[in-house]
Structures are given as C-alpha cells and as structure tokens.
Amino acid sequence: MKKSVILGAATIAGLAAGAAAAGTMDDVKARGKLNCGVTTGLVGFAAPDANGEWQGFDVAVCRAVAAAVLGDANAVEFVPTTGKTRFTALASGEVDMLARNTTWTFSRDVDLKFEFVGINYYDGQGFMVPKSLGVSSAKELDGATVCIQTGTTTELNLADFFRSNNISYEPVPIETNAEAQQQYLAGACDVYTTDASGLAATRATFENPNDHVLLPEIISKEPLGPLVRHGDNEWGDVVRWTLNALISAEELGITSANIDEMAQGTENPEINRLLGSEGTLGEMLGLDAQWALRAIKAGGNYGEVFAKNIGEDTPIGLARGLNAQWTDGGLLYSPPFR
Amino acid sequence: MTTLTDPPKEQFRLSMLLYDTRYRSATIQVIALIGFMLLAAWIISNTMQNLAALGKPVEFGFFAEPASYDINQRLIDYTSRDTHLRAAFVGLLNTLVVAVLGCVTATILGVVIGVARLSHNWIVARIMTVYVEMFRNVPVLLWIVFIMAILIETLPAPRAFRGENPEASMMLGDTVAITNRGVYIPEPLFSNTLGDIHLFGDSSLRFNVSLDLMAILVVLGIGIWVSRWIKRRADRIQEQTGDRPVTWWQRTAVIVVPMAILLYLLGFHLGYPELKGFNFKGGTHLRNSLIALWLALSLYTAAFIAEIVRAGILAIPKGQTEAAAALGLRPRRIMRLVILPQALRVIIPPLISNYLNLTKNSSLAIAVGYMDITGTLGGITMNQTGRELECVLLLMLVYLSISLLISAIMNWYNESVKLKER
Amino acid sequence: MSDIGFVRTEMLPEQAPPASEVGIIGWMRHNLFDGWFNSALTLLSVYFVYKVLAALVPWILSPTWDAGSLAECREILAGLGREGHYAGACWGVINERWIQLIFGFYPAELYWRPIAAFILLGVALAPVLFSDKVPAKLLVFSALYPFIFPWLLWGGTIWGPISALLGFVIGWLVYSAVDKAMSNLVGIIAGTLAAVIWWLVLSGYFVGAMDTIAAIGIEPVESRKFGGFMLSITIGVVAIACSLPLGIVLALGRQSDLMIVKYLCVGFIEFIRGVPLITLLFVASTLLNIFLPPGTDFDIILRVLIMVTLFASAYMAEVIRGGLAALPRGQYEGADSLGLNYWQSQRLIIMPQALKISIPGIVSTFIGVFKDTTLVSIIGLLDPLGLSNAIRADANWNGIVWELYGFIALLFFAFCFGMSRYSMYLERKLHTGHR
Question: What residue ranges are annotated as transmembrane (chain C) (predicted)?
C-alpha cells in the first residue's frame, strides 16, 4: 500500500544519481554538478553560512574544479562527511572528489586505493595549552589530559609521540572541533591537539586568544590535499592541474583583479598557456581553453583564497609559513604548465 | 490447517502442489526458501565483486596487528602496542560496564519516580510528571551531549583546586574530588595482596582475575549462606514452638566478622586521590564521559521504567489494596507484600525491552568519546584499517550476542515470577 | 402542655466545614503538608523549583535577539552590566539560523512544498486517526498520498510517482486475472512479479516516453538539500509508512504455521531488534553500496531511509503481532467458518481490527523512530543536531552551546509530546470501544 514511497523516492532520486562508471568527468558533465566531499564543519576550511552557502578554504578548491569543468563555480553539491564516512563516500562514488583536510599517507594512497592529487595545505600536528599552565614544551606534559579529535591520524601520532618520549597522558577522544574547543576552554583537558592550522583557527575565535599558546613541537607531517578515486587518471589530472593552476597563478602574479586583462595575452608564454590564449593545454585535459581562467576567477589565485578564508586578515589569522610560494621560502611548488 | 479426512490412495498430480492444502504449505515454504537463498546469494556475490574491485578481500588478519592508539578507560591492561582485537575487547568491557551500571541505576530511579508519580503530594507528583515527559520526549542523544556539556561547563577544573585559596575543594574530608574531568573517589588497596590469576596467557584475550576480590566474594558468599541457614532454622523453631529466637546479631555477625578478619589479613586500606601535576593522581577515576553516558542513559530509561512501574501498579485492582487493608496491613506493607509482587508480573516483560534499549543506546557513547566497543571496533579501528565490512559485521554480532544474553536471563527470571496457571 | 421537647424537630443549619479542611488551606493540608515526610518533600521540591527557575529565567531573558555574532552578544550583555560566562543567552544564533534548523538547505523559494507536504500528511492521516469525525471517502486521498508526498519533497516529473502507482495497478490486475483463472497462490506470485518487472524494467521507458509527450513536473530537489527538522520528519514519516506493509508481512510470517517462513521472519525481527540503530546506520553509510550490484550508487539519505525502514519494520512487526494476538480467537474461527481463504480473512476480518488496535503502538514506534533520527548526525548528515555542529563551526557562532541544544530539544519535545498525548487519547478511546 505505502510501499511505493520508497520506490517513488527511488525513481526520482535515481534520476539524479547515475551509476559511478569509469569516467568521472563524463559523469560530472552529464550531471551538471560536482559532488564534493567536505567536513561537516571546520572554521575557515568548510562551514555553511546562514544561507546554506558553504564557505572556506577547502570549499574554494571544489568551486575551482567546478568552474574549470562545468563553467560555474556554484555548480557544486557539498556533501558533508565525517572522518569515518569520508573514504567510503569517495570509494562508493557518492562524491567525485574529497576536499576535506585529509592527510596524505602511504596506506591511504596505496591500501585504501585513493589518489592524492596534490597538497593544498602543509600542516603538522601541534599542541595548544593555556598560558597559565606554564608549559613551554610538549615534553613537559607528563600526566596531562589531552583532547584529541578522533577519526584522524591525530590519535596515532599522539600515541607514538608520548610513547617514544616515555611520558604518560590521558587521551580524551572527541568527535567534533566545536566540542573539543568547549572541553578545552572549560579546563576539562589541559592540552588540545590537532593540526596546527586547526589550533590557530580555534584559538582565533576565543574570547581571549592571548591566554593560550601553541607549543613549538610539531609532532607530525600533515600534508593535506584533495583526493580522488584510484584508477581514473583523466579525472585525477583535472583536479590536480586545477589545484596547480591556482598555485601557479599566484606565482605568476595572476589575480582575480588582473586576470581578464592578462587573458587577452601577455609577454609571458606560461601565463598565456595557462589562461588559454596560447597552446592547447585545456584540450589535453579534455576541457576547453578557458578552464584555468574560470578556475582562478572562481575565488582568485591560491594566495587570494588563503587570504580570504584563513589568512592573517581573517579572524583565523594563519601566517603563510610553509604554505608560501617556493620563491618566498615556502613549499608550494607547482610543476610548470608546459 | 490440516484436513481431517485423507482420500485413500489418490494419485499424486503436479497441480496438487497448488490446490491441495496438504502440499501447498510445502510449496510456499520451498518458494520462500529459494527466494531467500537467491537474495542471500545475490548480496554475497555483489559484495565479493565490489570488494574485489576495491582490492579489499574479506579477511580478519588485521585484528592481530597493533592498534597504535590509546584508550583512556581500560579495565584490563592495554597499551597502544596491543592488537586491534585487544582494543575491541577493552571496548566490549567498557560497554558492559556502562550497560550494567545504567540498568541498575535506571531501575532504582524508575521505581522511585514511578511510585512518586502516584504520590498524594501534589507538587512531588507534578515534578515527576514533568521529569518523565521531559526525558521521554527528547532524543537520548541530545540528553547525552547535553549532560556532558553540563558536566564540563559547571564543574570546576582540576586547576581550580590549586593555590593558597582554591576556588574549589575536595569533599567528604578530602577523599572525593569532583572535577570536570570526572570524579575521583578513594580506591581499595591491599598491602598483603594475594596476587592475580593470569588467564589466557599472552593472547589478546588475556585477563587477570584478582584473587583478593575472589577471596572477598567467597567469604561474603559463605557468610550469606550461613546467615540464611540461621534464618531457616529460626523459621523452623518458630513453626514448632511459636517463639522466634532473636537472630539478627548472629546473622549480622556471620557476615561481618569473617569479612573484617579477611580485610585485616589482606591489609585493606583506601588510596585517596591527590592533586599532582596536571591531574589528580591515585584513587579511582570515574571519567566524565562515563558519568555523562551513565547519567543520561539512566535518567532517560528511568523515565520509561517509571511509566511501566506506574502502569503496573495501576493495573492491580483496587480490591487488592482494600483487602490487604482489611487484613490490617499498613500502607507501606501493602505496597511491599501485596501490590508490588503482583505488579512485578506486569512490569517485567516491558522492563526487559528497556534494558535491551539501554544497552543498545550505550552505543551512542561515541558522541561523548567514551571508548566502548562502537568507539574502538566500530570507530578508530574501522577508521584506521578501512575494513568496514569486517568491523561492522563483528560489531553487530557482539551487540546481538549481548542482546540475546540479556533476553535469555530476563526471560528466565520472568518465568520464575510468572503466575503459575493451572 | 409544657413546651419542653426532647427531640429536636427541625434540622440545624449546616455548619461551614473548618477552615483547615476546605479552600486553599484544606487543599494544601491534604496535598502538600500531610505528615512530616510529605511536608519535608514539599519544601524540598519548592526549593528545587525555585533554584532551577532562578538560574534559568535571567539567562533566558536576554535582549540578544538581533545580535549577529557571539562577540556582539557579549558586548550587548556587557553593556547591560552582565558579565561572566552565564550572563545571558545569545539568541541571535536562533534568529539567524532557525530557518536553516528547520528546512536545512532546501531552496528558500520552494519552502511551500515541504510545508504543503506535511499539511497534506495531516489531511491524509485524518481519516485514519480521527475516523469518527472525518468522512471515510478521504481514504482514497490517503491511499494516493504516499505517491504525492515524495513528489512534493523531491520534485521532478509527475510521471515518476504515477508510474510507481501504475505498478500497483498492474500487479493487482494480473493478480485478479490469474486468481480467477488458476489459483490464489499463483495469482499472488504472478501479480508481484508483474509489478516488480514493471518497476524495474518498463517504468523507466514509460516515464521517459510520457515526459517527451507531456513534460509535467516541478523543480527537482536533491535529497542532499534536506536537513534540519525537515530531514528528521521525512526520515520518520517515510520509514514508518514503508515499514507498515513490511511489518504486516513480517508479523503474519511470524504467526504463520509455515516453519521456514516463520523462522526467516523471526530471525530477521530478532536480528534487527538485537543490534543498535547506529550499526545499521554504519551499514547505510559504508556497506550498503557494497551489497548492491557494482556501480550502484544512490545518495546517503536514500540509503539511510532504507536502513531506518528495515529497523522500523521489525518494531512494527512486533506492534502488529500484539494487535493480532489481542484479537479474540473467535474472529479467526468466524472467518474460517465463512469459508474465506487466508488472504481474504486477513484483508476483510483480521487486519482491519488488528491494525486499529495497534494504532497507539504504531504512534509510539513513530515517536521512537523520530527521536532516533538524531543518530544520523553521527554519520555526517545534517539533521538538527548535525547542523548545530556545523553552525558552531561558523566563526561568528563558535562557542555557542546551550541556545542551540535548547532550541532543538524544545522542538523535539513539542512534537513528541503532542504525538504521545494523541496516542494516549486514542488508547482511552479504543479501550472503551473494543472490550
């Protein structure tokens, strides 16, 4: 009698959800929407605003890819994923790409069969403590209670760090950043540990940010980057080079302000190749010539995206640090567009 | 449905499978079985294909690999070098702890509140009604995170205990510290300990049984048995002579005296919590996550149990109360001797399903970071190894076994109190 | 004659009862201060209520409705001279986000659709729930409603739900034809097969063809856009509606004399009831796609709907089994004696009565499922609780706790309390009618 609700729903939703075939790019184009996995909410990286529009640093990557492939930076469906559900969502084809501050590790790349297309943020696990605690090094934390966000590599790094330094601690695993922050501020834990960017972002929103310090130890390398499914290299290339286009744009001085002017053609052949006024790079990717132009226009170059979402002028106030261009002493180094 | 008369020696025809009620049921069953097996085969073959495509064949070998994460609350020894299986075992014990604690507290609270709702005191009855409606109509997950937030925000942090004029101080003569990291209570210690028995060698299921605890349990058991024997003897004497000998001091003594001697021999003393470094050290640490989960599950389930108890009491005809009153029993004895034993028969079956619900709801521990089996096996282990199929199936199997065990025990108890109908 | 009389001939006027036994004082003596124990309890309770109110009321009365961020709230409160952590609530977050908490990310210009869907739900349920006040003809609408509801929420072409409905019609036609020609059992099998073939194979062509002829439809909305209370209610309603027929089948199976069918049903019911919902949601989020043919991919909300439906159907089966068991044996025997076959007697005699008795149980199952929908936040769906985490990740509202939880709890309370009151009313009504 009422069994058909599910069938009705299935038919209708079935229209929207196609089968995950080999060609992700064709799927995306056919669908007219990019399905992009993001976090369920992390300040500065991804969170919905009052109108339900997603904003943030990771979100900008999704928008750039959508702009490059579909020509519309808003043609993105954001799929919030937790630490637990993100890999299944990607593996099952529910999302086309994951831009969810995910650490590039050997086992995720090789064993879980994913393809990390690059690094959009170099991070590392750090510690935040209240100044009043009088601690200046993580090695003085013997017996401390440590709040950890679960579902990440964080808890493994932490266990290794304390074990190798032979000091004891009390882990308090917590699902979301908001709750970890609440516990830390109330003093239910002495230390909060997660990626240094997350710590800085969290600290920035405190009533009195200056009462808290980040300890100098960075106990792990956390290269965060977008990832796609293994085995679909065309799609992987599109996402990889969209990210590289954003990074190169900053290096080459292309900003959202001067991009239209530069797209007319410049003296620099690499800019011309990137923006499509010269060469056939877009065609090689299976896109049109203006793909990178649109991707950069969506939110600006890497530097602009950074400054707008997590940079020093935002409440989060992260310095570029490792994430500066290689020319400025950072690690961002995009392969050439040639 | 069976037909009474069988026509003799009728030739079997194929159509009889459909039209003859003797064979039709077999036909239906065979069809159902084939359908079910086809469905199962379809799912299994899909799974095999999908897993092959993902490159993740089903195998449980990863359980023997080191878990590499730490667990804060562990009833048995565990380090991050232990295996995933060990971590799951630690989680299972944590699940059982919170389930047992929750069931006991919920029952006590539920009975008190259920009776209080029927109180003549207007304001008490109203408050209890508000309590029941408040807890029944808001999701338990919300209560869990809410109570956790209350614990964290309103209780003092350990650093508030420090300094010349601390903002907070320990309670009960400096023996109990209530902080927003949990409650620290004195722990029992034995200076002449008997040691432990190590079960299962070095395997992941190794388990230490404290001989001290066993000795205490044995002495307590013998004491209670002797005490009951004294009571039975007193009953016999009362029946024969009409006089009941005064036995209360004998009955207390046979329990208390041997216990006191044993505790003295074992060198029993209490270890008190002390503020050292970042945290309180010593004593037993009941973590916040355990308390929040325990409280939330107990309060939530107590609201349901209260309703069951109330319904059970109201289901007893008023004549029973009146007849008991006519016998000269006082109200409290009427409740204890007449109403509750009868109400129990109505109460127990729904009580079983509430215990089951509480146990299953304990899986929401994940919301407050209590490391139960969902947090270890279904949480970090699943997340780190990427073996969803194996972890989820095992998780289901564990919960299913716990549920079946609880229903078996409670059904057995229900049988024993059920009205013996003749 | 002396006028000394020993017997009073006229009645004395009635005296007013003592002041301590009537009016407010009497009521208080009886209900509040009846003995020392009760008096102590009363005083304790009054003190408790006072403490709770004294803590809550000043916090709730906080003029922060228009604040745009937590910092702004703190400024407003500091301006009033109210300092400290619990100076007052920050209602700005509710003002800014309440629409999101209710509708999720559903397009704002289409809000009328979920609203209409839920109002029509009331209309469709009216003939079932208030059978004495509403004309029974509305039942036709109730039968059609399961097709209207998803169409309104998800949108898309109108031919989808029509085609789904056609499946039932075709199944029924085949069944009645075969039933007459051959036998009841073959009829049921053939009817089911015909319907399944229609849905799986032919329906797609039909919808495509009709769409090219006459494209009638409304803007489709993907289930991803569902969030907040709308998501909770949708999951609850769909799960209960779909689990009802499943539950009936399972309950009948469990009561059946056919051993294999019985054990299959018992096994399914006990399995689902023995595991926590969260593990089933893990299946939805991580395993369901693995169980289906390679390449199948439908979105997470649909997968959650499937698993919650299976979950609810086991509980529904037990509720309906209770209803079946409550029917007097004579009803079954009466049906048999009229010569009705199994399905006829179920359809005409047993089920109408059993279902009616089961309505309160069904309502409380619904309340339970509705409350349990908050669990989907654990697998990353943005139900009210999941959204509250997302909102707290917004830089403006980072640090908000109680306001959001309070608001969500209040809405859940209002909904569940209303339903449970209705269920109790129904129980009382049925109690007199069916004994």
Answer: 36-61, 110-129, 136-153, 159-178, 185-206, 226-252, 264-288, 300-320, 357-382, 402-420
